[in-house]
Amino acid sequence: MDHIFADRTISISEFKQNPGKAISDAAGKPLAVLKNNKPGFYAVPPDLFELIADVMDDLMVADTVRERLADGRFVEVDLADL
Question: Is residue 3 part of a domain?
Fold first, then answer.
């Protein structure tokens, strides 16, 4: 069974009838829209979407940092020169 990562759910049929009301009823919380009783997509408020995007960006940067650290090539820098 698929995990649902939201406290509120709604069927896709009901969501299509009045998406604005569904979002409003979610009161700023994530809303799982179900298709055949499985999450089809999530509707999230803009501030949560921004947080998710920031975390994803941080994860990608962390991957780049780990790759470069594993390379072993370092450049010494004097902070006064910056």
Answer: no
